[in-house]
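Give me the fold.
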Amino acid sequence: MLTAEDIATLCVAGAKAPSGGNAQPWRVTVTGDQMRIGRDDRAGDSFLDVGGVAACFAVGCFAENVRVAAASLGLEYRSVHSAGSVEFTFTDRHGASPHDLYDSVSARVTNRGPSDGTELAETEIRPLTATAQPPYALTAVSTSDGKREIARALGVADVLRMRNRTMFDDMVREICWSDRETAARREGLDVRTLELPAATLRLLSLLRTFPRLRTVLPAGKLADTARQLVASCSHICCLSTSQPLTPQSMVAAGMAMQRLWLTATRRGLAVHPWTVSTLLLARLEAFDGRGLAGRERDEVARCGRGLRAGFGLAPDDRPVFVFRLSRAAAPASRSLRLPWQSFTTIEESADGTH
């Protein structure tokens, strides 16, 4: 029943999902009418992707796109989540009818550009919060005091990332610094998509060449970007959960966030992830701070207190994904994706079909 054209459509849709640093850390295996989406074990872990939590989140985003595309193709299915993967079993086919969010799968993009200055009405926020079902919840903050508290927490994480040599090196490696590199790799972040002011881009290029300079720059300078962009956005938002951050819960969180992001896209809203803070907090709280020095642990704990205070979360609530929400002009560039064949294996089933 599942045709070669179906497989291509589902995988192309899935690959339009977001992933940290555009690492595209997914692997798809198709056997007959089953499609398994999991983490690519060949992908190297970055410091921020502790325990593969970011990769599992990306797998969930991919799976949500597959769910939307399957509905649009008229494919009926069962799905099972387990240990960082999602398996679809396609059971029947009926008349194709585009899902409400199908066009948003291709239109969705990370938009790091400045807000147009308008504040979104509660009627525009409510459909987004409704997409996050328990045990996941979306909190959206627009007050000046709340945004300042959250921006301070995000700034703490940004400073840590710049000062920690491993994280800094990971960040430099994930950026494609030229058109040639972007076209050759088709993964990583095209530097143009960062929407950096010219002065900031020059500073980053200088730090790339002379990385020791990052240790002498004032912390306030390194945290400026968070302060400015959060202050100017309409809402700063957090997807959180009361569950432990296991591979399975992170896949489910990715699916929840992707539904939310596609809904925002359909409504013409710009989403700008700011996830360094939540990934560092996961390292501290779910992985015993592995790899963090004593002072870094203290700073990540301070970041966590600031996030929970700013978003009004309970001590047991775990911030999973923080993002800016605004109206903004469409970005001039978007990062490329690998061809679907590069991450897909089609195996022969017992009855001799693909």
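Residues 53-73 form the longest helix (21 residues).
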